[in-house]
TrEMBL record:
Assigned EC number: 4.3.1.15
Gene Ontology MF terms in the entry: diaminopropionate ammonia-lyase activity; pyridoxal phosphate binding
Domain Tryptophan synthase beta chain-like PALP intervals: 38-353
Record-linked Pfam families: PALP (PF00291)
Taxonomic classification: Bacteria, Pseudomonadati, Pseudomonadota, Alphaproteobacteria, Hyphomicrobiales
Species name: Rhizobium pisi
UniProt keyword terms in alphabetical order: Lyase, Pyridoxal phosphate
Superkingdom of source: Bacteria
Region (Disordered): 380-401
The keyword Lyase belongs to this UniProt entry's keyword annotation: yes
Top-level enzyme category: lyase
Record-linked InterPro entries: DiNH2opropionate_NH3_lyase, TrpB-like_PALP, TrpB-like_PALP_sf
Necessary cofactors: pyridoxal 5'-phosphate
This protein's name: Diaminopropionate ammonia-lyase
């Protein structure tokens, strides 16, 4: 299914708060933070030229975030960045002066960080980033995981020294429980979703994601004409759509948000024209996208900057994992997790459907950009779906910054 954006806010300028959060100055600050990370490297932009020829478009480029900062997901850009920013700000307040990034490992700042606890709910990848950020700065982390998070993903978070707190129910249940306990204990919630009265920190998380967009624009020979980005609560989709709208202005691409059909909270929000919570049904294999309530900040951006919303099915998600693992002639193989290739799955579904293809103005000149948002963050699940063993991650040797 595809739904063109018909909201009252469509094509209106971004809210000034969001334009500041996702604009060039903020993105440059993110890149400055990344520049001091010991294992930072620009992630690959892979041209799928064979696939583009096969489906009849000019180009398909995929930004492979499976290589990001040793965490295997774009989420590495958001949670850890927000934690670092919050620690520096808290230190500045306590010391009565501006504290620069260069002071992060000073005794004064470390003393402040040791008294801080950051907390979040997660499907796996965001919690890993928050936990890594806390370890980097010397803060404590409490990560709330619902019953659908696999043991492998829980273990991957726990290795950063985080306290793991199980929650019965869905991701949205864990978000509410994390907020409740954090308020009672005086912890700082570092969430990638927002709700009334809680917007700034999710904005910092989204701000971290602008780094991948800036990198991709520098890597591409020409800006894209079409972008397909998968959505959970909407953070990555909003960050990409918002930054592209600011960076490219009138030349911005046609932007489509791709939801799992079983957890289509952004699609249904677009249909209703306002944020809605959808019913919890059968779980989706797209575990990182299984969210039933959108982020309010993300919706505020997407209602203005997204052109269309669509859904993909379970078979689309597993099919694209296998297609990327066993590419057409000449294309590079890419390891994509259950949620990683969903944007590309949406793009191929749109191209194959004459009605959707026409509605999105896709033709032989179209240049498509997508993001592989995660590698094999659950290696067992990846092997089960593809029949292939993912490459082993480099052995972790300790903290880095």
């Amino acid at each position: 299914m595809v739904l063109l954006n018909a909201t009252a806010d469509y094509r209106q300028p971004l809210d000034p708060r969001d334009a500041e959060t996702l604009g060039p100055a903020a993105a440059e600050e993110v890149e400055r933070h990344l520049s001091v990370r010991e294992n930072h490297a620009v992630t690959p932009l892979v041209a799928l030229s064979g696939l583009a020829r096969e489906v009849g478009v000019a180009a398909i480029h995929i930004k492979d975030e499976g290589h990001r900062l040793g965490l295997g997901s774009f989420k590495a850009l958001g949670g850890a960045y927000a934690v670092i920013r919050l620690v520096l700000e808290e230190a500045g307040q306590r010391l009565g002066r501006t504290v620069d990034l260069a002071e992060l490992h000073s005794q004064e700042v470390r003393a402040v960080a040791r008294e801080m606890t950051v907390a979040c709910a997660t499907d796996g990848n965001h919690g890993r980033s928050v936990a890594q950020g806390a370890e980097l700065v010397g803060a404590r982390a409490a990560i709330f995981v619902h019953s659908g998070v696999s043991d492998e993903r829980v273990a991957a978070i726990a290795r950063f020294g985080a306290e793991m707190i199980p929650v019965e129910g869905t991701y949205d249940d864990s978000v509410r429980e994390a907020a409740r306990i954090a308020e009672a204990k005086g912890w700082i919630i570092v969430s990638d979703t927002s709700w009334p009265g809680y917007e700034r920190i999710p904005g910092l998380v989204m701000q971290g994601y602008t780094a991948l967009v800036r990198e991709a624009l520098r890597q591409m020979p020409e800006p894209p004409t079409h972008v397909f980005i998968q959505s959970g609560v909407g953070g990555i989709a909003a960050a990409v759509a918002g930054h592209l709208a600011i960076a490219l202005g009138d030349r911005r691409p046609v932007f489509t948000v791709v939801d799992p059909a079983r957890a289509a909270c952004l699609f249904e929000t677009a249909r209703a024209g306002r944020p809605v919570t959808i019913a919890h049904g059968e779980p989706t294999v797209m575990a990182m996208l299984e969210c039933y309530e959108p982020s309010l900040v993300a919706w505020r951006i997407l209602s203005r900057a997204a052109d269309a919303f669509m859904t993909v099915d379970e078979v689309d998600a597993t099919g694209i994992m296998n297609r990327l693992a066993r590419p057409v002639s000449g294309d590079q193989a890419i390891v994509a997790g259950e949620s990683g290739g969903v944007g590309l799955a949406g793009a191929l579904k749109a191209i194959a459907d004459p009605v959707i293809k026409a509605a999105l103005s896709i033709d032989h000149r179209s240049r498509i950009f997508v993001v592989n948002t995660e590698g094999a963050t659950d290696p067992g699940k990846y092997e089960e779906i593809t029949g292939l063993s993912p490459p082993r991650s480099p052995r972790r040797t300790g903290k880095e910054l």
